[in-house]
């Protein structure tokens, strides 16, 4: 651990469960890197992701965006391809883009959107896009004929969230430069979405633990009973 991390860790009491605003203020305060660090949220859920009926996945447009520019790749043809280009997609195409990904290991994009009729082409990329979290999915709004709206939401700060194998959701809620108040708005929007996405099959306590941290900083624990306060 570096000197800055050790100094920052002294500002956070590991035995205290902070309010969301207090925790975010600490995450900003303990961000000592020279770049504009991302503030990250980690939520441990009372679900067993091995079961299909306990998956937690979705997307939410953060009120203040992510502070990050996102490059979109859209698989579409004809009028839908024109709509995607007009909406500002960086890359639009069909089989030729799939071939480029497969043959050239090309990944100069952050999010993939596809019209439903293109999923036959995109499906062949499952083994490549899946592990990178780039596979389009109807639940996250990235498989749709309304490509213009999908791109506009992504550019406005739409963030996907998904529970991992260890029952934790890791997701960004903005940049250090946003300040604690704006980060709190984004935090609340994300937590509302996660709470709303609770599977019917989940039993017992759903929100087990919550923490926020900067990219290079220590985590501050949030009281799981006060995440929507």
UniProtKB/TrEMBL annotation:
This is Large ribosomal subunit protein uL1. GO terms for biological process: regulation of translation; translation. One of its GO terms (cellular component) is large ribosomal subunit. The keyword Metal-binding does not apply. Binds directly to 23S rRNA. The L1 stalk is quite mobile in the ribosome, and is involved in E site tRNA release. The keyword tRNA processing does not apply. It holds the Pfam family Ribosomal_L1. Belongs to the universal ribosomal protein uL1 family. One of its GO terms (molecular function) is structural constituent of ribosome. Part of the 50S ribosomal subunit. The gene is rplA. It comes from Clostridium cellulovorans (strain ATCC 35296 / DSM 3052 / OCM 3 / 743B). Keywords: Repressor, Ribonucleoprotein, Ribosomal protein, RNA-binding, rRNA-binding, Translation regulation, tRNA-binding.
